[in-house]
Amino acid sequence: MSTIRKAGDLVAAGLAPLERLPELERVAARYAVAITPAVAELIDPADPHDPIARQFVPTGEELETGPLERADPIGDFAHSPVEGIVHRYRDRVLLKPTHTCAVYCRFCFRREMVGPEGLSNLTPGQLDAAFAYIAARPQIWEVIVTGGDPLVLSPRRLAELSARLARIEHVKVVRYHTRIPAVDPAAVTDGLIEALRCEGKAVYVALHANHPRELTPAARAACAKIIDAGLPMLSQTVLLKGVNDDPDTLGALMRAFVETRIRPYYLHHGDLAPGTAHLRTSLEEGQALMRALRGTYSGLCQPTYVLDIPGGHGKAPVGPNYVGDGEVEDPNGGRHAYPPAVD
After folding, report:
1. Confidence at 333, pLDDT banded by 50, 70, 90
2. End-to-end CA gap in the chain
3. What does the pLDDT look like over 201-232, one tens digit per residue?
4. Buried b (16+ CB within 10 A) or exposed e, 51-80
5. 59-104, pLDDT tens digit by residue?
6. In which order are the strands placed within the sheet that holds 173-178?
């Protein structure tokens, strides 16, 4: 099986019924579709609420844009001084060498950029300008290589990126954001891992996964290769209705990360991307889930719940508050005076 990219291929693979073909074709004409064989194998076609299908199989609901939704929900364009760079925080930038992904998530906040008429890969000249921007600003301590998914690039191209970053003395940390180890674990070769090394820099790999079933034995083995090569891994997860919006599923996902030696990092509230309302929870629901994790699961399993504020104002922690009115709440809901009363 090859990667599924067309509405008709979804039907042929049994991932959608024939009667949905016209609807799927309309969605695919606007938003990119790609489902790797590894992901297709995880989908249960008999389950109309399958959490893997919900992430990757298109639905007509995506063509319904709400009044609050926007093409650039987190303000990338407002903070893009040159093509391929997003500079929202003083000490770090995003570098986006490609807008291609191995799979296309139905909730993607950059879906207008990676769609059929979205942005292309950076040209050599654009890449030169992006590196010149980084090199000219000594306050940039960290470069986050994202996209798209940078690990769809060949090891040769990744090695070139690493070599160029290695030559910028003030950059100390390089972070790659990817889904590849989970959605195409066979692509995590020794050559790819070697290409991620960046001489003189601390290199991290952030894995995006949203459901514990995505951490298959093959995915865990791919992550182990990365970690055993000396590249620490972090997690990125989006809170999604019908996918991970219950304590048992979210807790199992965080445990799966920890068991794989991946540090739970961010739990993102769903962004206001067009056609994603059916996948978004409320902030209150997210806060309740974080309370449930805190009371039940190891401290190693606690991500930071964040909202990327629309308009490009950055991420804000939006987890529940346990302190107020001279009291602190324990994980079981009990309230206690703090500072405590003097005996």
Report:
1. confident
2. 71
3. 999 999 999 999 999 999 999 999 999 999 99
4. bbbbbbbbbeebeeeeeebbebbbbbeebb
5. 999 999 999 999 999 988 899 999 999 999 999 999 999 999 999 9
6. 85-89, 92-95, 142-145, 173-178, 202-208, 233-238, 262-268, 304-308, 315-317
**Residues annotated as part of the active site:** 88-89, 92, 101, 105, 108, 110, 271, 308, 315
Closest CA to 185 of 162, 155, 218, 209: 218
> SS3 for 282?
coil
> Strand locations in 172-225, DSSP E?
173-178, 202-208
> Whole-angstrom Cα distance, residue 5 to residue 274?
20
pLDDT tens profile 149-168: 999 999 999 999 999 999 99
From the DSSP assignment, how many helices (H) and strands (E) are in the chain?
A: 12, 12
Contacts of 66 (CB under 8 A, 6+ apart): 272, 277
Show the tokens assigned to 43: 């989908």
Compute how many other C-beta atoms are within 10 angstroms of the C-beta atom of residue 171.
Answer: 23
3-state SS, residue 60: helix
Q: Is the peptide bond before 147 cis (omega within 30 degrees of 0)?
A: no
Largest CA distance in the chain: 74
Q: What is the spatial order of strands in the sheet that 323-324 belongs to? A: 323-324, 327-329, 335-337
* C-alpha count within 13 angstroms, C-beta hemisphere, residue 280: 21
E strands in 272-334: 304-308, 315-317, 323-324, 327-329
Global pTM? 0.95
Per-residue confidence (pLDDT) for residue 332, from 0 to 100? 85
Q: Residue 126 corresponds to which tokens in the numbers above? A: 């654009």
